[in-house]
Amino acid sequence: MAIMTVRRAIKTFQALFEVAKYCRKLVPLWSPVYPAILLRAIRLCRRQRFLPDEAFRLGLFNPNLAYTEMSKFTSRKNLTKIQESTNPISWTPLLKNKGIFYRYCMALGIPIPKLYAIFFKKAAGWSYDGSVLASRKDWKKFFDNQLPATFVVKPTQGACGKGLNIFSRSNKKFIDVSGRVYESADLYDALLSDPQHESFIIQERLKNHPELLRLTGIEFLQTVRIITIVACGELAPKGLAESDRKNQCRIIHAHLKLITGQRVVDNFEHGLSGNIESLVSLTDGQLKPAVTMSLDGSGVHTIPNHPKTKIVFSRFHLPLWDQACKLVKEIAPKFLPVRAIAWDVGLTPDGPYIVEGNIWWYPPNQHRRMDVILNELS
User: Fold this and answer.
1) Are 264 and 358 in the same domain?
2) Strand ranges (DSSP E) for 93-163?
3) Residues 345 and 230 in one domain
4) Which whole-number Å values give the CA distances from 136 to 140, 147, 151, 152, in the listed order?
5) Does residue 130 share a domain with residue 64?
6) Which of 38, 110, 213, 216 is the Cys-Cys partner for 105 at CB 3.0 to 4.6 Å?
7) pLDDT tens across 107-165, in order?
């Protein structure tokens, strides 16, 4: 008991030290306003369960942020608690494991990037033609003869785009995005020796819709995040006809994830990646000014024009918006009893595709509308 008390005290001290450290980045320790900023920050982290770095990046320690704005943000811990009341924890692998997710989508006819193969370090793999890939020789033959000119490899349980690689092939040579050249045996060895991941999927590389290419000038896929909630039976909104109350799906949030700089994936990573995001109007797909987060604690900043093409975001409507909305509303009930899912949808020349489904999605605090989202989830 005494040991647990000591550990709890140490953990509390470490948390207070972290809060104090981030507050010092806003004002000097000797500043007369430092005590007030520190006290406000401590209360925020204790009551709202924000991690110090999480709250700092959002600008919640900034004394210029009005208290009335606080309701527009929520901590990851608080959102996870709510998500656990809508999504059964035991069903996590259905969406978190991309191999299981894509095979499930294939069985239901859900449009996804073509799945070419699933690679396992310690077990036989699977190929899209139904064959079992059990040996180095099997995989070498598959790489040499059954892959298209370009394809994507990513961990089955990766997050934030980490571990994703894009390959192009010339004859029996494979070149990744960094310019490294592989032969088929090298590619097999690279997957087998990966120190972090046990399995990978090999899939089609999707192309951006021409309108997205016009907006961004970037060829790497940029998806729209669409969050849905399926309200069943008595949980459905009041006023619905009885026939509409069963498995009623609503879209409660959407934003476009945009790549900047030399990145090849569109993940925001809490503002650390340098990428930006644009809120999407749910009614017509019109974009809002994009947002980013600085590292100095000043919080969320808006960007009216795309940094590369200079196109004004507020004058741009997403292509295929109605089709994308229809798609996620149709497929969300098929994942019940998981009710709240954040979909990453690729808008391509061939229509919308489901790239990923996320069961434990991060709060999109950067768009300052978590009060609306939480109300929809309740």
Assistant:
1) yes
2) 115-120, 125-127, 132-133, 150-155
3) yes
4) 6, 16, 20, 20
5) no
6) 110
7) 999 999 999 999 999 999 999 999 999 999 999 999 999 999 999 999 998 777 788 99
